[in-house]
Design brief:
- The complex is a heterodimer of chains A (about 110) and B (about 120).
- Chain A is mostly beta strands and about 110 residues long.
- Helices cover about 0% and strands about 55% of the residues of chain A.
- Chain A contains no helices and 11 strands.
- In chain A, the strands form 2 sheets. In chain A, strands 2, 4, 5, 9, 10 and 11 form a 6-stranded mixed β-sheet that branches. In chain A, strands 1-3-8-7-6 form a 5-stranded antiparallel β-sheet, with no helix packed on it.
- Chain A is globular and about 40 Å long.
- The termini of chain A are far apart.
- Chain B has about 120 residues and is mainly beta.
- In chain B, strand 5 and strand 6 form a beta hairpin.
- The relative contact order of chain B is 0.34.
- Classes of the chains: A mainly beta (about 110), B mainly beta (about 120).
- Chains A and B meet through strand 4, strand 5 and strand 10 of A and strand 4, strand 5 and strand 10 of B.
């Protein structure tokens, strides 16, 4: 079955700096790659997603890149703000079932 | 913005007791899911449900677990005889279109289950 690895597990950046979180997946059939943000005490919220027919997608300060050949995808957050502090999960899927990564705790210091 | 609502937000139960977690998915959604997250760990798929039947389940979802859509709005997860290791946050999610490649899942805020 699919296995998703995520790095780093924790990431601390200064406000205004960029943050990059990387994920790899094992199942070449996976074709949908969402990123979720989870704030304390809340459920995961979708922030951006990408499908396998696209290499890059951007939405304001966040972007996701996908390398199908290498089976990895990354989340890029530019101009980080303290409210970006949260746990971020990547996921992969080719069915209804999402397989999540282990999460990255991002802390943005003012 | 439409939400997935879950109740209770926190339930404490004794080992061996039955627990029912409730979810109200977004009203026009057709596909429903339960995921769980043990404290500090990743979110894990439990079960997907469509057209009044389970479409997929994980190895976690054993005979102690069941799901039901008893009416047009609620979607429930029942744990028949809880174990200590069932302590986790349980998330309900729904989506309008399921199937190949999945689609945007909307998650609820979760129900924290503590088994003593």
């Amino acid at each position: 079955g699919e296995n998703v690895e995520q790095h780093p597990s924790t990431l601390s950046v200064q406000e205004g700096d960029s943050a990059v979180i990387k994920c790899t997946y094992s199942d070449s059939a996976s074709n949908y790659f969402p990123w979720y943000k989870q704030e304390l005490g809340k459920g995961p919220q979708l922030i951006i997603d990408i499908r396998s027919n696209v290499g890059e997608k951007k939405d304001q300060r966040i972007a996701v890149t996908l390398n199908k050949t290498a089976k990895h995808f990354s989340l890029h957050i530019t101009e980080t703000q303290p409210e970006d502090s949260a746990v971020y999960f990547c996921a992969a899927s080719n069915t209804d079932k999402l397989i999540f990564g282990t999460g990255t705790r991002l802390q943005v210091f003012p | 913005e439409p939400e997935v609502t879950q109740t209770p937000s926190h339930q404490v139960t004794q080992m061996g007791q039955e627990v029912i977690l409730r979810c109200v998915p977004i009203s026009n959604h057709l596909y429903f899911y339960w995921y769980r997250q043990i404290l500090g760990q990743k979110v894990e798929f439990l079960v997907s449900f469509y057209n009044n039947e389970i479409s997929e389940k994980s190895e976690i979802f054993d005979d102690q677990f069941s799901v039901e859509r008893p009416d047009g709005s609620n979607f429930t997860l029942k744990i028949r005889s809880t174990k200590l290791e069932d302590s986790a946050m349980y998330f309900c999610a729904s989506t309008l279109l399921g199937g190949h490649g999945a689609n945007v899942l909307t998650f609820g805020a979760g129900s924290r289950l503590t088994v003593l």
